[in-house]
Amino acid sequence: FSIWTMCDACSDLFYNYLPAAYASGNAVMVTGFDSQPHSSYARRQLRKYLDSVLVKERYPLDNFETRKPVLLDWADSLVKYYGRTYATSGLYENMDHFLEELSTYHASHYGNDFTCNVLLSIKSFASQSHTPGFDKLNIRDAQMALNLNWLVNVKYKNEKIIIWAHNFHIMNNSWDAMGHNAGKHYSMGNEFLKDSLNRMQSYVLGFDSKEGSAGRIMEKNTYEVREPKKNSSELWYGDDQYSFVDFTAYNHSTSSPEFFYMKGKDHRQHALACIGREDGAE
Q1: Which of 19, 147, 196, 214 has its CB surrounded by the most CB atoms within 10 Å?
Q2: Is 155 helix (H, G, I), strand (E, B) or coil?
């Protein structure tokens, strides 16, 4: 996504650190967990991949040969028409049922592998593309949590993994933190950390901001960062360019929750964060 690769704050990572690590022989593996197939790679490869793995001998399902070409065309269109609803609700429903059959059969016969997650990701992306409001976001975040769980506990088990995503996706207890009036958003972090193993082996970093201007690559206008609230984490920091607050020791020393504000979702909306809980900093 160009909002990351063209951002000057990320340029050192993409164009200096990663190439240098590769050249040193200690390369950093880069993978993705988002269920949105909007990349040029997906446009080139998704249909070919599905065509190669979905064969009658592996999936002896009713009317497989008739439904497969429809699925290939439909999945191809999901990529080409990213962000737009382009087909009838009946086609979405039929493909949803077919993908459910395929993913269920695959999981029971071949296990939880890459193909299984691809099928589930296409299914969830199709669902989110014609679902309104926060339910759309919840479908996406739930699937991202499943994909991430597979990467962490299956594909790259026992590896050190840095998960990079927007605060909006990695935050835990997102509905409580943002307030119920902000919408019933159940984030990827919320779903991923329901698993006790994932919670035990995860350390969460949240990015915060005190003052200045912000914006997004590919969008013309910028905006001023909202002023911190009273009892906000943004007021803890000194004059250093960067500050880091580690809640680990505090969480182990008290059982009484203490709440504070931080601009945890973006630079314009205050979130209510909590420390001193048994499940750690939120």
Answers
A1: 147
A2: helix
